[in-house]
Write a structure and sequence with these properties.
The protein is of the alpha+beta class and 122 residues long. Helix content is 33%, strand content 34%. The protein has a single domain (24-119), classed as Bacterial OB-fold (OB fold (Dihydrolipoamide Acetyltransferase, E2P), Beta Barrel), CATH 2.40.50. The longest helix is centred in the N-terminal third of the chain and has 21 residues, at 2-22. The radius of gyration is 18 Å and the shape is globular.
């Protein structure tokens, strides 16, 4: 009986831990971000995993999935998966709207993990 109880407790705790580490689904981030249109300066002050929408200019591709972004209130790095970048047909200098999550770090600056990005057509 004790072994079965221990197994149930261990399984339950592992499942709870996995759901915490998995983060939010993209559709949840997209829904939340529509309510949180912010500037770079504001985004840098928000807690980790806050869904946001930013509009500004892609300045340059730094490395792999990291791009420098400016909206006039400051600079921040956007982490954009290659499939999103290529699908949107983006290049440095384009004005974009980026939707994603604030990603805070202990030893490096806050960045935004992008789940959707679109070129702004004026």
């Amino acid at each position: 009986m004790n072994k079965m109880w221990m197994t149930l407790c261990l399984t339950g705790s592992l499942l709870a831990t996995t759901s915490v580490w998995a983060g939010k689904d993209d559709h949840v981030i997209l829904a939340e971000a529509t309510q949180k249109v912010v500037t770079v300066a504001e985004a840098k002050k928000l807690p980790d995993a806050t869904a946001v929408t930013l509009t500004g200019t892609l300045l340059k591709h730094l490395n792999q999935e990291h791009y420098e972004f400016n909206d006039g209130t400051g600079l921040i790095l956007l982490e954009i998966d290659d499939d999103l970048w290529k699908a949107a047909g983006l290049k440095a200098g384009d004005k974009v709207t980026a939707i994603g999550e604030v990603d805070t770090h202990r030893y490096k600056p806050t960045d935004i993990e992008v789940v959707k990005i679109e070129k702004v057509t004026e």
